[in-house]
Please model this.
Amino acid sequence: MLDNYYSSHDYEMQPQEWLYRSSILSFLQGCGVVVSAEMHTHRGRPDLVVSYRGHVWVIEIKVAFEGESAEEKAEEAFRQIAAKNYAAQYPNAVCIGLGIDDVERQITESVYSTLPVCSFIKGAALV
Model:
């Protein structure tokens, strides 16, 4: 559904990360889940924190513009969650890095894992 929404935008429009984040936020809120954008932590702000029926997802979004790799952007987003420890306050949170291909206007890549792996990656200093 979001892919259809993004791909329907005028090809000359240059959306930035905030547009994708706002669209995902609105969609999820419309589905009845609790979503917070840019929640402040002592190390930064994850793009989205989603809560539904006792489960939490911490989402970071990166946009791959022309010539960039959406796969690398998804990995970068995931590493940012881990490096900045965004999910520390949410036991058993799922950390999700999304890579959006701006040329295709699609979410084309994702990297995800639960908190223990996020904590392990943080220790590896990948960012």
